[in-house]
Write a sequence for this structure.
């Protein structure tokens, strides 16, 4: 990167960060925002506090106190960031994505750490798990929020341990879906509008979460576990008692299901036992050309009924079943509350848009050092996650502007997924490679330090999902309307 580009980046970064000045009570505290974000965008091999502070010629203790002790409003900074994204990147086809990630940590002192499933290594490990909300449009995606998950038995039940880790008494155990719902509500309150929400079966298996989104009028496509039960035909519901019941003196609760009704069935068995679904032909969709060949899925859809909190049938929902053509044993099930006329192609495109948050995690960890934090206190971890969201928004915007110069005028991907729209953040190149200040302490940074390896997320999907064998032979771009 030449000197002119570096200076232009600095000017853009300075202007961007000035938007958050009112989140800091003192100028002396505000200056550490620049230092921290510049450190995350730099080419340091490890982006924990000590190497970032050494490279900037600053005592590491000052940067540690910036995260854990100095008075500034991280909640306001997060709100300002979400308002900024809402004003600059609103889009009628926006998708919100909920997911979690994990960070391997040693010892037992780090807030929220325990031995649990760690997605970063794919097994049980001592780690901290965080829940995140991402925002994606056809040409932009970023992280909007992040919050540590507080385990119930090992942490919430031991308030003394919580106080030692700096966890406030008002911070108590909440299931991950409740954390995600609060993040969604917070983003909406800050002006962010999601045309769709999508998430994996860890959240799609929570009826209360789905009902809450439904009640707020939010369309979603949720992956669900294969043992989720549904009605393929609406069961009959009784709303009045019968004379026979009154004569026998048997009190009944109304409304209630009629005794003789079709039972609910697990979604994995719908293909086998539903005559209506068997009559629906499979449609084949080309999702993307991946590094190992084309990603092709066959899908079909049927309207089903879910039970509400009283066990009574709700309105119709889409049950979308997708099968990997190259791996027929891989079958995914999705439930959606979208209008009945919504095309299968649109539902499938939303369902497979979760790659955006996976890519955001990958870039935040590999480029911004999101998993390099070495702080232990709860407030410091929370602030680190929010600052990483801030850095990721700037990084996404900067690289999106550079992609625009190289893309075609209509900025649409080609028929084989070779366009720029919906692609990742670009080449693995540091944003600010010369942000280190001339100070002797910068020489103490270990040049051999390396980040630990981690599994790569699944290949990013293109934002165009095309049906194969369409009569017109045309490539139909994704439409989320």
């Amino acid at each position: 990167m030449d000197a002119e580009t570096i200076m232009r980046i600095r000017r853009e970064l300075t202007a961007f960060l000035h938007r958050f000045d009112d989140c800091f009570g003192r100028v002396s505290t505000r200056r550490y925002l620049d230092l921290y974000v510049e450190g995350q965008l730099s080419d340091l091999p490890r982006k924990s506090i000590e190497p970032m502070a050494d490279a900037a010629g600053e005592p590491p203790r000052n940067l540690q106190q910036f995260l854990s002790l100095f008075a500034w409003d991280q909640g306001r900074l997060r709100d300002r960031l979400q308002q900024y994204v809402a004003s600059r990147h609103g889009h009628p086809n926006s998708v919100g994505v909920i997911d979690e990630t994990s960070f391997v940590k040693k010892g037992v002192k780090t807030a929220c750490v325990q031995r649990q499933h760690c997605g970063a290594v794919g097994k049980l490990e001592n780690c901290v798990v965080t829940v995140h909300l991402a925002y994606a449009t056809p040409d932009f995606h970023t992280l909007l929020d992040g919050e540590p998950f507080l385990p119930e038995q090992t942490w919430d039940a031991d308030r003394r341990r919580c106080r030692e880790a700096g966890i406030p008494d008002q911070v108590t155990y909440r299931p991950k879906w409740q954390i995600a719902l609060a993040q969604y509500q917070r983003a909406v309150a800050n002006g962010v509008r999601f045309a769709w929400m999508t998430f994996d079966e860890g959240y799609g298996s929570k009826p209360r979460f789905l009902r809450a989104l439904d009640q707020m009028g939010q369309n979603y496509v949720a992956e669900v576990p294969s043992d989720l039960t549904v009605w393929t035909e609406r069961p009959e519901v009784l709303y009045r008692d019968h004379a026979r019941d009154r004569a026998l003196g048997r009190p009944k609760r109304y409304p209630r299901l009629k005794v003789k009704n079709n039972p609910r069935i697990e979604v994995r068995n719908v293909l086998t036992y539903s005559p209506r679904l068997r009559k629906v032909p499979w449609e084949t969709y080309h999702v993307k050309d991946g590094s190992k060949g084309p990603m092709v899925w066959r899908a079909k859809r049927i309207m089903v009924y879910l039970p509400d909190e009283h066990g009574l049938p709700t309105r119709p929902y889409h049950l979308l079943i997708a099968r990997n053509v190259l791996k027929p044993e891989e079958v995914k099930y999705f439930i959606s509350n979208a209008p009945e006329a919504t095309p299968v192609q649109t539902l499938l495109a939303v369902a497979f848009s979760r790659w955006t948050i996976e890519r955001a995690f990958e870039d935040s960890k590999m480029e911004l050092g999101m998993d390099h934090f070495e702080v232990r206190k709860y407030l410091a971890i929370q602030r680190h996650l929010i600052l990483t969201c801030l850095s990721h928004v700037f990084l996404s915007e900067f690289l999106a502007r550079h992609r625009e110069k190289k893309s075609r005028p209509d900025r649409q991907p080609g028929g084989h997924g070779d366009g720029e729209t919906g692609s990742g953040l670009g080449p693995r190149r540091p944003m600010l490679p010369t942000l280190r200040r001339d100070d002797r302490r910068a020489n103490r940074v270990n040049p051999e330090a390396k980040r630990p390896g981690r599994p790569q997320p699944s290949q990013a999907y293109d934002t165009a999902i095309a049906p194969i064998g369409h009569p017109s032979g045309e490539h139909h771009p994704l439409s989320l309307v």
